[in-house]
Design brief:
Layout lengths: L2 E5 L5 H9 L8 H10 L3 E8 L2 E11 L4 E9 L8 H15 L4 E7 L3 H9 L3 E12 L14 E3 L1 H10 L8 E4 L2 E4 L2 H8 L3 E7 L2 E12 L3 E9 L2 H17 L4 E7 L3 H6 L8 E11 L2
Helix pairs in contact: 5-6
The chain binds coenzyme A.
Length: 289
């Protein structure tokens, strides 16, 4: 049966939701964003049709003032995997990116997602950076914070001003937020600030740690946070602080992103339940010009 690649529309929703239902044991976030992707002016969602049904989809979202094409939501129906459909869609998104005169395409994937990593290699993407990721049930009891650690809320503009003076706590100048990545800028922080709150600590008036976090629906609440710090103490303090916030926000699951050099610390942490899942997220980029 021949396969055709084309833009998907609201009429394809049942097929797309069926693919999503069969992905990651139903924990796929796609149903929560599908209407935005189908209707958003910045999104171009493509699908592969075989016979009567759409059996694969992927979205290209234009971000960072038209500079970057963010590739997301690549899904192939389990009955149609390993037949080259993800390959076909990746090629389609690259062509769309060229037509839109984007400077680069980017996406993130788990380091253990072999197909996704292979697609990057095949289509000329390079690895920009790697960050640590932890998924776990929320601990029954949040850790106690040491009295000397002071973390407070801040607005995007203040965080930006502080990072202008000391940006080296953000490796590669890339802010990773909920498996997405943006170059450090005031606009990026404001975008992140639409759903997340910023928490900072200062040392001698300079920023020594930062986290941003929000309770994400999936559909149960997942405390989703990213930590940046100039050392172990800041990382640990922000981690403990976020565990406290996850409890206050009644989240059942936590997902944390942090500098991969602290991975061992998260592996060993006594604060989180044993059935944790620790992996790494890769940020991949393909230059277009
Ligand atoms: C990842 C996914 C999109 C791949 O779709 P697919 O149509 O099966 O992939 P393709 O057939 O186009 O294969 C692309 C490449 O990956 C390889 N590949 C595909 N599945 C693989 C697997 N499970 N393990 C190892 N390699 C795999 C293929 O061999 C091919 O490489 P090759 O050309 O060198 O042989 C699909 O498995 C899926 O929907 N997974 C769940 C959602 C997901 O992980 N999405 C991507 C990250 S957000």
């Amino acid at each position: 049966m021949s396969a055709r690649t084309r833009r998907v529309t609201a009429a394809d929703k049942p097929d797309i939701l069926e693919i999503s239902r069969l992905t990651w044991e139903g924990h796929d976030y796609l149903p929560l964003v599908l209407d935005d992707w189908l209707n958003g002016e910045d999104s171009k969602m493509y699908g592969v049709r075989v016979g009567e049904h759409v059996i694969a989809v992927a979205n290209l979202r234009v971000i960072e003032n038209g500079k970057t094409g963010w590739m997301e939501g690549l899904r192939v129906h389990p009955d149609h995997r390993r037949k080259g459909y993800a390959d076909l869609l990746t090629q389609k998104l690259i062509e769309a990116g060229k037509q839109l005169h984007l400077q680069r395409l980017r996406y993130t994937t788990g380091i253990d997602n072999e197909a996704s990593v292979r697609l990057a290699e095949k289509h000329g993407f390079t690895r920009l950076c790697e960050v640590g990721v932890l998924f776990a049930p929320r601990p029954r009891k949040a850790p106690k914070m040491k009295a000397h650690v002071s973390i407070r809320e801040a607005e995007a503009a203040e965080v930006y001003a502080l990072l202008q003076r000391k940006s080296n706590i953000i490796p590669h100048g890339v802010l990773v937020h909920d498996w997405k990545a943006l170059d450090l800028s005031l606009e990026a922080l404001q975008t992140i600030g639409k759903d997340s709150k910023f928490h900072i600590s200062l040392k001698d008036d300079e920023i020594s740690s930062l986290s941003f976090a929000y309770p994400r629906r999936r559909p149960d609440l997942m405390w989703t946070f990213t930590i940046y710090a100039d050392g172990l103490e800041g990382t640990l303090s922000q981690f403990a602080y976020n565990l406290i916030l996850s409890e206050r926000n009644n989240c059942t699951v936590i997902m944390g992103t942090y500098d991969a050099k602290y991975e061992a610390l998260f592996q060993k942490s006594k604060w989180i339940p044993k059935n944790r899942w620790i992996t790494r997220l890769l940020l991949l980029e393909r230059k277009m010009q």
